[in-house]
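Open question from group meeting: does this chain pack into something compact, or does most of it stay loose? Before anyone orders reagents, we agreed to write out a predicted structure and look at it together. Recording both the input and the output here so the notebook holds the full record.
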Amino acid sequence: MINKRLFSASVCAGLLSIMIGCNALASAGSTSSSQSVVNGVIVKSISDNAISDKAISDNAEEPDAAGALNAGGAVETVAAVTENSGVSVMAASTEVSDNSSDNSSDSSPDNSSDSGSALDTSKLFTDRDLEQKADTTGARPITVADSKVYTVKNAGVYVISGTASNAQICVEAGEEDKVQLVLDGVKITNDSIPCIYVKKADKVFVTTTDSENALSVTGTFKADGETNTDAVIFSRDDLVLNGTGTLNVSSTDNGISSKDDLKITGGTLAITCASDALEANDSVVMADGTVTIQSNKDGIHAENDEDDLKGYVYIGGGTLNIAAADDAIHATTIAQVDNGTITLSCAEGLEGTWIQINGGKTTIDASDDGINAGRKSSFRTPLVEINGGELTITMGAGDTDAVDSNGDLIITGGTIDLTAQSPFDYDGTVQKTGGTIIVNGTETDSINNQMMGGHGGGKGGFKHGGFNRGGFDQGGFDQDNGPGGF
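Structure tokens returned:
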């Protein structure tokens, strides 16, 4: 666990800009609330009904650098630091602001690399994205308490611990600020609001220590004005998940959502949700880590209707296990696999406009299409391209295709093992310059369109990495091999 040093009363006032209860949460009727100043931090206690039954407001009043909100909402000058036993908020002795160490640059689906990669992967991750341990020198500890909202206003590192119900970490920093939230054995269970809500920042890192952490929402999500905050971790800006510990996420809607880029570079992440597990507007990219998903919709979903160069998914390493009722991996533009061990149990495995597999070991058990390239975006003709790796696809009986391209099919390498009544279905041209193809147990050099093998069989699910025999509808993911699912 991480040592926490209390910030001295003589220097703490004005140094931190964490507000607890900065959001104007108020119930339809009268709401009981109290607030005070703890080590220069505003503490606002809100009744359980207020936080669970009322949406968060963007119009919350904020203090200036030298004052705090009084009970009537006016700014009151703080002359001394007071104590409040109702919440534990601690701060370290030095200011932390590391905006210069992380110089992000966007990648696009434009093929600009010499290797033939669909994405320029050199731009996907910064050094800080890949760093699994936070520099906690001068970090600011926060111990969560019931029915309190903690708002981070400055760049820096914040260490979060404790157990609470209806609590929230809200990031509302500057547009150039990078904020790192270090989860150090925290458990938050909410009725209707995200456990972590990023309203504004340049980038937010959610980093686990060598600890178990759990975030869950058990009821119907409440909107924040016109923003549908429908995920346990909801971010309007770039979000990075990494660390050395475990984060368990449970949701009645989406698991983790970013309106920009969502990156996973380390740690152990387990998501159980009723909708999409990992969702982003611009991209979902994974460099390393272990991710286990049970989703009643899509496992990974990247979709952008406004920009044809966004909405892509990249898997560059790690272990990924997905049990999804719909698509395991869905991308508007590109779904690219370079490395890693990927196990998918789903209706459709990989779906996008350009699907490129360059390496790794991918196993797909699907009831519709194993790989499906369709025109999700106008940036190019649909294409399935397999250049390397090990690809095993087992299809259910019926009108299903193991590899389906509404455009072209290119195979230059790798080992492709298909068990399906219709191994290949393509609307454009086909090219094979390398690789090994096995169809229903027999190696072949030909790629016949809709080649009927007759050995598909019904989808019975599989037990691999925690998925139970019987498929998603027979219990889904249950490490104890008991009944479960949705």
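Observations to bring back to the group:
Residues 10-87 form one domain.
Residues 1-33, 36-43, 46-100, 451-486 have pLDDT under 50 and may be disordered.
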